[in-house]
Amino acid sequence: MTTFLVIVNIVILLAIILGLYALQKKHVKFSVRVLIGLVLGLLFGIILNVIYGTSNEVVSTSIQWFNIVGSGYTRLLQMVVMPLVLISIIAAFTKIKLSKNIGKISFFGIGILLVTTGIAAIIGIAATFGFGLDGVQLEAGDAENARIEQLNERVSTVENLTIPDQILSFIPTNPFSDLTGARSTSTIAVVIFAALIGLAFLGVRRKQPEQAEQFAGIVDTLYTITMRVVTIIIRLTPYGILAIMTRAAATTNYEAIVNLGQFVIASYVALIAMFLVHLLLISFAKLNPLTYVKKGLPVLTFAFTSRSSASSLPLNIKTQTDGYGVSQAVANFVGPFSVTIGQNGCAGIYPAMLAVMVAPTVGINPLDPGFLITLIIVVMIGSFGVAGVGGGATFASLIVLSVMNLPITIVALLISVEPLIDMGRTALNVSGGMTSGILTGRINGELDENVYNDKSDLHDVVEA
């Protein structure tokens, strides 16, 4: 009977996929198909959850088959992330404008990421006070106790990790190993390696322009091919999101969400408030925030469902260049940095909320201005090198809590609602990266306002 029910579920998913494909053949807009995939996946997952529960064999077996579509799509994006980071950064240096504005682009790109992370921390603190959240009220069950044991294995590493050690971990000793994602800081290590190659190119161009021109041509060709691979994979987004959302909705423990509902609500209030800050910053740049939302919907939806900022990078860069009119130089430079620096959700809001919640348990007054200022600074510094994958918020929280001499067990006590909150955090991370790219492009005169304001979305680009 179990096998029959699993086959029925697979057939239903395939039928929905065929329906989405039919919409594609009718040239329904890409963003609309992504949204339809999200909604249908959510409904299908909830139905499976209601009928079978979260631990039923039918659900677990069905999800294994669904993962061929969902996890397969995510893996394809992960496959291209490191090559894209490497070639994007190098290609950014081969652009004439970037070589002239490299200092300004670096300053504003990274600076905006860090400043918005500081603002995110302030919003997280305000949400914690506003909802009266208190870490003392949290209780540990079997799952939480198991999580605490896992965290204790990581704590020794984090506790001994000083800021100088953290900075040193960014520097690659074997860039080819980092290209495989061998370390949690591999992405930023690849960024540094690519930046060094770019700087070397600028030096060669001054002394040996012919060789530099040949190299630039090779890089341009590789970048074009890489982005074509990205386009091919992006076409699968509606199907990938359908399967990923079905898995998330079918396996979510809704009872745990109810028990920790106040924390979940406070988290999403903070996340939405920070997203509104992004829109406000877009407005200050004299750009339409509604256009930002419309064109950014596919990448934000994927980030929400996949819970991976790194996997969202190809869509991130594509949206900045083809949707918002940000120059390739700026998008290729700021995009990869946003995966590992200044993640507003994972490295900003979440660690700040946990620190304020747990402070009273060790006799610290969370309203003390000295404590709050120190916390915001630590959050901003700790946001360097946070891995842009699922679990990055945990690592960021461990760093912040350890530096502030606060207990880390609160991280484990929220494990039951972690996936749900991580969806919103990841979407905010990606939004922060795109906002930084847009503002940096605007400030440096490398944003095409006509492209930003046109009525098309990624549909025409993806289907080309």
UniProtKB/TrEMBL annotation:
The chain crosses the membrane at residues 6-23, 30-52, 72-93, 105-129, 185-204, 225-245, 265-285, 370-389, 395-415. It is a multi-pass membrane protein. Keywords: Amino-acid transport, Membrane, Transmembrane, Transmembrane helix, Transport. It comes from the Bacteria. It is found in: Membrane. InterPro entries: Na-dicarboxylate_symporter, Na:dicarbo_symporter_sf. One of its GO terms (cellular component) is plasma membrane. The keyword Nucleotide-binding does not apply. The keyword Transmembrane helix applies. Its main location: membrane. GO terms for molecular function: L-cystine transmembrane transporter activity; symporter activity. Pfam families: SDF (PF00375). PANTHER family: L-CYSTINE TRANSPORTER TCYP, PROTON/GLUTAMATE-ASPARTATE SYMPORTER. Belongs to the dicarboxylate/amino acid:cation symporter (DAACS) (TC 2.A.23) family. This is L-cystine uptake protein TcyP. The lineage of its organism: Bacteria, Bacillati, Bacillota, Bacilli, Bacillales.
